[in-house]
């Protein structure tokens, strides 16, 4: 097995464990791509201001995706698992 296959399978394994990481990465790329395409029609806006807005929007999306991912993990660990464990404990053997 080559190192490329190992890293690819590692990426998919990590993506299954935490699905909001690929969502954050895709959103980042989409926002940056959109803002780069809009760069032609920025009007009187300075280049530095346009790039700062692009960076803030992309970072905001990634932080939002990370926050949702952490909340999802907390829900899964502290609410979903205890309910499953409680149901298993109350089932007759």
From TrEMBL:
Q: Which Gene3D superfamilies match?
A: 6.10.140.1320
Its domain of life reads Eukaryota
Q: Name one GO cellular component term.
A: mitochondrial membrane
Domain HIG1, by residue range, is 1-84
List all membrane-crossing ranges.
20-36, 56-75
One of the GO BP terms on file? mitochondrial respirasome assembly
> Where in the cell is the protein located?
Mitochondrion membrane
Write the record's keywords in alphabetical order, separated by commas: Membrane, Mitochondrion, Transmembrane, Transmembrane helix
Supply the InterPro entries for this chain: Hypoxia_induced_domain (IPR007667), RCF1 (IPR050355)
Q: Which PROSITE patterns match?
A: HIG1
Q: What is this protein called?
A: HIG1 domain-containing protein
């Amino acid at each position: 097995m080559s190192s490329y296959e190992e890293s690819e399978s590692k990426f998919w394994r990590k993506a299954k464990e935490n699905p909001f990481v690929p969502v954050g990465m895709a959103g980042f790329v989409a926002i940056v791509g959109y803002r780069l395409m809009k760069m032609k029609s920025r009007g009187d806006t300075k280049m530095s201001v346009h790039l700062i807005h692009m960076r803030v929007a992309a970072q905001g999306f990634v932080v939002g995706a990370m926050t949702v991912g952490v909340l999802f993990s907390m829900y899964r660990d502290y609410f979903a698992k205890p309910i499953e464990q409680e149901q298993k404990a109350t089932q007759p053997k």
